[in-house]
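Dear H.,

Thanks for agreeing to be a second pair of eyes. The structure we're designing against is below in token form, covering all 221 positions.
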């Protein structure tokens, strides 16, 4: 049987590249997407579905997690808060969604066990990100230990994070080398038609393309 990897895919360029990396390593991709009441939920879902078609994914999951809106505390899920547009600042920004990756990985573990996936792949980036604590390598490694303690011995899950120490410019270069469709991805935190160009996510993306010497193929305001 072909080995399978459960890829957590947001519709953004990091998680998209991870899925293409896993495919290049010979894995059959099981795709997992979360709708968590984020501002660009419809755009991200559309991108996810289009990317899955390009990947040739036959098995995909779309999970709704509306409780993130009830929890709030993030400008991505609480519309009374404003998405920062003044530039990338030090520390954890208000766009951080409390323990989002921990919750995502918990659900991913359950699906991976059901699907017989010994590998979960996630597009966390530690060095060139917005400073989210649940994107740290140490957190993912520790979570993997807990996941294996809480699942069947035969499950034996490994969590792959191939981008964790890359800069955004390196991610762009890797994506181009693998033929990952960056034109199908979305990064903006607040718009779903044209990227705002000024939120943290847009700034990181645009800076990555600039440093890679490549023009970003998506439209901006």
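And this is the sequence the design step returned. I haven't edited it by hand at all.
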């Amino acid at each position: 049987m072909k080995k399978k990897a459960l890829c957590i895919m947001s519709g953004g360029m990091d998680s998209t590249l991870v899925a293409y990396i896993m495919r290049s390593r010979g894995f059959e991709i099981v795709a997992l997407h979360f709708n968590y009441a984020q501002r660009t939920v419809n755009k991200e879902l559309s991108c996810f579905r289009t990317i899955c078609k390009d990947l040739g994914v036959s098995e995909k999951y779309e999970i709704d997690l509306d409780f993130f809106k009830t929890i709030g505390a993030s400008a991505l899920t609480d519309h009374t808060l404003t998405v920062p547009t003044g530039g990338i600042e030090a520390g954890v920004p208000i766009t951080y969604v409390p323990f989002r990756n921990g919750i995502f990985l918990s659900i991913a573990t359950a699906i991976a066990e059901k699907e017989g996936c010994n590998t979960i792949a996630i597009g966390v980036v530690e060095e060139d990100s917005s400073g989210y604590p649940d994107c740290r390598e140490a957190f993912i490694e520790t979570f993997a230990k807990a996941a294996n303690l809480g699942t069947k011995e035969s499950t034996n899950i490994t969590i792959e994070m191939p981008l964790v120490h890359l800069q955004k410019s390196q991610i762009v270069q890797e994506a181009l080398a693998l033929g990952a469709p960056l034109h199908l991805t979305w990064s903006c935190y607040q718009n779903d038609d044209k990227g705002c160009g000024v939120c943290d996510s847009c700034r990181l993306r645009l800076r990555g393309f600039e440093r890679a010497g490549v023009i970003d193929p998506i439209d901006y305001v």
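Two observations from my side: The chain is about 40% helix and 10% strand. The first helix runs from residue 13 to 24.

Warmly,
E.
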